[in-house]
Amino acid sequence: MNVEEEVEKLKEEIKRLGKVQDDGSYKVTFGVLFHDDRCANIFEALVGTLRAAKKRKFLTYDGELLLQGVHDNVEITLKPTPPAAAAAAAITTDAVAKN
Fold first, then answer.
1. How far are the Cα atoms of 47, 63, 96 from residue 78, in angstroms, in the given order?
2. Residue 51 pLDDT
3. CA gap 25, 30 in Å, rounded
4. CB hemisphere CA count around 13 (13 angstroms)
5. Does residue 59 contact residue 79 with C-beta atoms inside 8 Å?
6. Can you tell which superkingdom this protein's organism belongs to (predicted)?
7. Are 79 and 86 in contact (CB under 8 A)?
8. What is the mean pLDDT for each group of 10 consecutive residues in the chain (99 residues)?
9. Closest by alpha carbon to 78, among 35, 36, 17?
10. Which pLDDT value is given to residue 98?
11. What pLDDT is stored for residue 31 in this prediction?
């Protein structure tokens, strides 16, 4: 799995484990992600995938490096999908489903 695929998987997992906010974003703590069995099986390097997603501006969190235990309560926020991107994704999904 390449970095882009891992970032997309991470976004899915944050949506699964996090709580949706009024603005359409999702919030989850690092500890919840780190201790989740499914995430542990998907991500060999969760911290590296988080950093890649942050660098690509898909999510935000305080600090640069998150460490298990010390940073378990740090909130990770998955930014809301821009409406144009969401519409394009829906059209692509519909087109794939019809074929």
1. 15, 15, 26
2. 95
3. 16
4. 25
5. yes
6. Eukaryota
7. no
8. 90 96 95 94 92 95 92 96 59 54
9. 17
10. 57
11. 96
Beta bridge partners of 78: 26, 59
CA 93 – CA 8 distance, rounded (Å): 15
Q: Residue holding tokens 């699964």?
A: 16
Tokens read off for 25? 């974003």
For residues 17 and 14, what is the distance between their CA atoms, to the nearest angstrom? 5
Residue partners of 58: CB distance under 8 A and separation at least 6: 7, 11, 78, 79
Let me know the angle formed at the C-alpha of 7 by 6 and 11, rounded to the nearest 5 degrees: 115
Chain centroid to CA 77 = 8
Tell me what pLDDT residue 25 has.
95
